[in-house]
């Protein structure tokens, strides 16, 4: 089996290449992130976006207790109910 050039590189060379690629990718990512955050800041200063955020938070806060109780009940059923009485399990 023929060895590729990637397998013959030393570990230090691979680390150098990875760090260089990371630095090259970080510059455009930084610029795009700043641009996007600037645009989002303008958007979230509008009254419509603030109202949307308030309604979203209100819905999530109202739903959280039900999700929590459902998770606790589901965990209790999983732990406390033996498999012998669960008739909907798949048989092999």
Question: What would you say this structure looks like, in words?
Answer:
This protein has about 90 residues and is mostly helical. It has two domains: about 10-45; about 45-80. About 80% of the residues lie in helices and about 0% in strands. The protein contains three helices and no strands. The radius of gyration is 27 Å and the shape is flat. The model has no long low-confidence stretch (mean pLDDT about 85).
Properties at a glance:
mainly alpha; 2 domains; 3 helices; 78% helix
Number of strands: 0
How would you state the average pLDDT, rounded? 84
SS summary, helix count: 3
Please give the domain count. Answer: 2
Order of helices and strands: HHH
Q: Can you tell me the residue ranges where pLDDT is under 50 for at least 5 consecutive residues?
A: none
Regarding quaternary structure, what we see is: single chain
Largest β-sheet summary: none
Principal-axis shape: flat
Compose a concise summary of this entry.
The protein has helices at 5-8, 11-44, 47-80. The protein has 92 residues and is an all-alpha fold. The protein folds into two domains: 12-45; 47-80.
């Amino acid at each position: 089996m023929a060895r590729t050039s990637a397998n013959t590189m030393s570990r230090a060379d691979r680390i150098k290449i990875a760090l260089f690629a990371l630095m090259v990718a970080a510059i455009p990512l930084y610029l795009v992130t700043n641009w996007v955050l600037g645009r989002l800041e303008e958007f979230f200063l509008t009254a419509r976006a603030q109202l949307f955020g308030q309604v979203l938070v209100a819905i999530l806060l109202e739903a959280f207790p039900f999700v929590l109780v459902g998770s606790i009940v589901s965990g209790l059923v999983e732990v406390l109910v033996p498999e012998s009485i669960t008739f909907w399990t798949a048989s092999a």
